Amino acid sequence: MANRPGTIKHMRLFTCFLLGCSLFAQTKPAAAPKKNAFDKATLEAYVRHLGTWGPQIKVEISDPKPSALLPGFLEVKVHAAVGAQYSDEIFLVSKDGSRFFRPPVYDIAQNPFKPELDKLKTDFVPGFGASGAPVVIVVFSDFQCPFCKEEGKMLRENIAKEYPKNVRVYFRDFPLEAIHPWAKPAAMAGRCVYRQNSDLFWEYHDWIYEHQAEMTPENLKAKVMEWGKSKNMDTLALGRCLDTKATEADVNKSAAEARELGVDRTPYLFVNGRRVPGAAWPALKQIIDFELEYQKTAQNAGEKDCCTLALPSLVSK
After folding, report:
1. For residues 154 and 109, what is the distance between their CA atoms, to the nearest angstrom?
2. Which residues contact 65 (CB under 8 A, 6 or more apart)?
3. Cis bond leading into 267, ω under 30°?
4. Alpha-carbon dihedral of residues 190, 196, 202, 204, nearest 10 degrees?
5. Cβ partners under 8 Å of residue 164, min gap 6
6. Are 130 and 168 in contact (CB under 8 A)?
7. What is the pTM for the complete model shown?
8. Confidence band of 10 (pLDDT split at 50, 70, 90)
9. CA distance 46 to 211
10. Phi then psi dihedrals of residue 182, to 5 deg
11. Among 156, 163, 28, 38, which Cα is nearest to 91's?
12. 87: closest CA among 51, 114, 55?
């Protein structure tokens, strides 16, 4: 006799009952929690995998903030460090946290280096070269760095000679304290010189690089004071500036702005906002020449002002 479908169904139920089966066992497993880039642990695990960053690398994730680069997205900074080396990367995250990517993001109507230009501050910063120049070079440097010594010498020898009316150079402090013990005191001393007599800063710049090999944390102040005396500076005011660390905030601010720009080494140059992490003169000259030609029609970089901003002297001249 042929089995009817209903009979088979009842037989299966009866068998399952005898074997202790549950009629309700066929439930779906719970779905895994949805990953979100705003969860710091999730994002850290992702970027560690992305960058092959092992446990020896310390990773810090910032709180998100609205992005100026791309409206509608949020900006998260990832700081990775091992010893004295570090890297800061910015990620743009969608509002739902499901997608993220690295800049740059370009606006076709803007200079491609506008984000850098907006962050590069040159008010009350030592500079040389033509005011109102179409090309501005901002160099982040360290007085104890041997490569900075060569870069500084190259700039001082070539800019005034090759581009007396077209290029202006600004100096920003970025002492690498973890590896250069007297770099920050030297930067603070340079700012003391600049505060008292802005015209003398570049003489100090050239002198300290020239005597770089002689400097130590112990003899730096004495040598700076001796140099200041030879330049007829008010050494009493200079010594007070050094002893009270009156310019430390200036140096800290410059270093913080460097890190905000993603500067991770010295020397590090920006040519009209274009990143140039150190370059030999032929390569740098090529970039300058290109930018000079470009600015003839673009006029979206260089100096907008006609004048140099300098701190007023703290002593009577």
Report:
1. 35
2. 74, 75
3. yes
4. -50
5. 129, 130
6. yes
7. 0.79
8. low
9. 47
10. -110, 10
11. 38
12. 51
